[in-house]
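Regression check, iron/sulfur cluster case 417:
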Amino acid sequence: MNNTLDLHHHRLFSPGQGYWPEATPEQWNDWQWQMRHSVKSLDHLTGKLQLTGEEHAGVLLANTKLAMGITPYFFNLIDPFDPDCPIRRQVIPRIEEMTYAPSDMADPCGEDHDMPVPGLVHRYPDRVLFLVTDRCASYCRYCTRSRVVSGVGEQELELDFDRAINYLQKHTEVRDVLLSGGDALLLSDRRLEDLLHRLRAIDHIEFLRIGSRVPIFLPQRITPALCAMLRQFHPLWMSVHVNHPRELTTEVRDALGRLADAGIPLGNQSVLLRGVNDDPAVMKVLVQKLLRCRVRPYYLYQCDLIQGSSHLRTPVSKGLEIIEHLRGHTTGYAIPQYVIDGPGGGGKIPVNPDYVVARLPDRIVLRNYKGDIYEYPDVTPAGQEAPTPAYRRLEFIDPIEEREEITSRSWRAGRRD
Ligand code: SF4
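Current build output:
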């Protein structure tokens, strides 16, 4: 992959007005202007980007599946001379999107089955996902909800806020509501405020969350007025979506800073994508930059089996390798949980490198991030016999010499510290 780390990955820089020098600073900083000037067609790309054959064909077909739409601000992050640019791969359609692998699905997370009311996904006992719009500031080519977002796919996203609120009023077990879509931050301040007021008026709802890529695609939307409005609804948390260090510009840092200053705890969800961030060195820069922007890396998702995304998917071993390269090698706060969404509706399942070498009745054998072996003598509760081990790696127990070798290595390693 062409992802050599240059200074751009480390620096926070501004892409500037780039291809839109004629815009006044007021226009450029106006999020509605950005949306009106979104790059949506082959015509809009003319003179800006020399498309590859795969991209040209992809752009022509995109509006039959998942629309192309890229804010001018985000478009300027694309390297026009690099067909493998990690920003480009996320937002410029390619003809491979029309190839469906046998395991691909239209609704890989099985959301439609768990929708008691249009737009409301109630899968887990105490929380719901509330889809409030089908529009996004730009469209990610691997979007797990591409069947309903952008308005050109097979399905239309039905919305009925009254029925959704009514359902939530009756379901007292729901304590957590996640607003998503599409992107909830594309609603006007007034509409979003009205919706948040209605949710806050429900006593048993303790916690509100917004999942949004707007701070990344359209940092101009994060106005002081929006932040002042949102802060009325605490506890309100936000998950943003950054995949590559180059997305963290000075504009994005400032937008995230305004949200953080409004008391909104920020987490990040990245999707592991081939040719974008499937490199431990790139991910390490990303997670460290996120901390500098006051965002806690939260999840690293294995790419869902969304139709036409196989060219962007990586082996699971790549995700494990990335976590292995982060754990112990950088700040604990910087390490996201790697998850696979169980295909068809299994929810998020954590996947971790294995640090447990063996479990014995009286001890657990562990390896640390450097591969050194340690034994921790386990506690057997009073009055109970030592438990049967959940699993054991027999090669460490038999022959006995090997076990002794491990014990003495762990002792030596332990003494070093
Ligand atoms: S911002 Fe989220 S919902 Fe919108 S296209 Fe990207 S992944 Fe899909």
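Comparison notes: Residues 400-416 form the longest helix (17 residues). Residues 136, 139-140, 143, 145, 149, 182-183, 213 surround iron/sulfur cluster (CB under 6 Å). No diff flagged against the previous build.
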